[in-house]
Design a protein that fits this description.
This protein has 289 residues and is an alpha/beta fold. A five-stranded mixed β-sheet has the order 3-2-1-4-5, with helices on both faces. A hairpin with a 5-residue loop joins strand 2 and strand 3. The longest helix has 17 residues.
Length: 289
């Protein structure tokens, strides 16, 4: 410093307000810094909508003993960033202050379902029925088809009632598929109470709306489906990832239904299927799939 600036180190540090010890200190990088940085970049590429805290949770599952502060430092060092988005408004009450939403208190207490619209590569419209358990945050079903009616909703619910049990309540909007006479007469016979939200108030079905937003933001917006069958297979793979791998902030960065697997190795040695995003089926797109 003395040769470059023509002043002593003491005088230069005093002018900059910097201690001489800090000036002479050499940074020491841990031996695993490069491997950790490579794994962070790899995960950031696979899950572009995940922030450093969720990436930290994935690293810990893969066997890394690392805290979020170190991951954040590397995250900033590598100029990684999640695109800014406007925060959605979440209103749980009517304008007069009365509460309108039943809070889930145990598994199978309140389910919620809704539809998500998407298009194939050729412009054909498809719809996906999403069913979630509001308490566990688990996605119970993703049924995709060209046109889903009330009979399809009953078919999905029937399968879930057999495998998951019967919930106490089911929340939905006032779509014709959910307010059909067949459903309104069928559910009460099973002891299930329906919770219909007020028209034009999607925030009253907040858990399902939030899930649909994650589905579109983290997957649908980055995928092109060529056939209905391809969409069905890939969405089911994503549902598996969402339930068993993806860390949830509201659950302490744990998945709703974590897999019973312990891996003590580094991320590079972790089994590939656990962290791989949904893969396209190896099929001929012209074969009708």
């Amino acid at each position: 410093m003395q040769q470059k600036l023509g002043v002593t180190e003491r005088r230069a540090c005093a002018a900059l307000g910097q201690s001489r010890g800090l000036q002479r200190r050499k940074s020491v990088r841990p031996d695993d810094e490069e491997a950790l940085t490579a794994d962070i970049i790899k995960l950031a590429r696979q899950y572009g909508r995940y922030g450093y805290k969720r990436i930290t949770a994935l690293l810990r599952v893969a066997g890394w003993r690392v805290n979020h502060k170190r991951v954040e430092r590397i995250w900033r060092q590598e100029a990684l960033k999640v695109p800014q988005k406007h925060k959605k408004k979440g209103r749980l009450y009517l304008n007069d202050g009365s509460c309108i939403r039943l809070r889930p208190c145990w598994p199978n207490h309140v389910w919620a379902y809704d539809f998500v619209a998407e298009r194939l590569k050729d412009g054909t419209k498809i719809r996906t029925l999403t069913v979630i358990d509001e308490y566990t945050r688990e996605c119970l079903s993703l049924r995709t088809g060209y046109s889903l009616k009330a009979d399809d909703v009953m078919d999905v619910l029937t399968d879930l009632f057999i495998t998951r049990g019967i919930p106490d309540h089911i929340r939905s909007d006032n779509g014709s598929e959910f307010t059909a006479k067949s459903i309104q007469s069928w559910l009460p016979k099973l002891g299930i109470k329906t919770l219909y939200i007020e028209p034009g108030s999607p925030w009253e079905n907040g858990y399902n709306e939030s899930f649909n937003g994650r589905l579109r933001d983290e997957y649908l917006n980055g995928e092109t489906f060529y056939t209905l069958k391809e969409a069905q297979v890939l969405l089911e793979q994503w549902r598996h990832h969402y339930n068993h791998i993806r860390p949830h902030t509201s659950l302490g960065y744990r998945p709703p239904a974590p897999l019973a697997r312990i891996n003590e190795g580094a991320f590079a040695t972790a089994p590939a299927p656990s962290f791989m995003p949904p893969q396209r089926p190896n099929c001929n797109l012209n074969s009708g799939l």
